Amino acid sequence: MTATDKMTAKTKQAKGAAKETLGRAVGNERMTAEGRAERATSDLRQAASKADEALRR
């Protein structure tokens, strides 16, 4: 995973967390779920990257 990919994943992770928090604050279940999904996707992408880097060593 390149530095650009890592930055993109971190940005999406932060965006998802913000969307989830905002959705909870206003009581919008759909926004909360979308934020949770974005954050989970970014978490999985980072985990896959770390596993790939560990296997390459």
Automatic annotation (TrEMBL):
Please, which domain of life does this record's source organism belong to?
Answer: Bacteria
Q: Which Gene3D superfamilies match?
A: YjbJ
Q: Which Pfam families match?
A: CsbD
> Which region ranges are annotated with the description Disordered?
1-57
Q: Where is the CsbD-like domain?
A: 5-56
Q: What start-end ranges are recorded for coiled-coil regions in this protein?
A: none
Q: Which InterPro entries does the UniProt entry name for this protein?
A: CsbD, YjbJ_sf
Q: Where does this protein have compositionally biased stretches of type Low complexity?
A: 1-16
Q: Where is the composition biased (Basic and acidic residues)?
A: 31-42
Family (UniProt) = Belongs to the UPF0337 (CsbD) family.
* Protein name, UniProt field: CsbD family protein
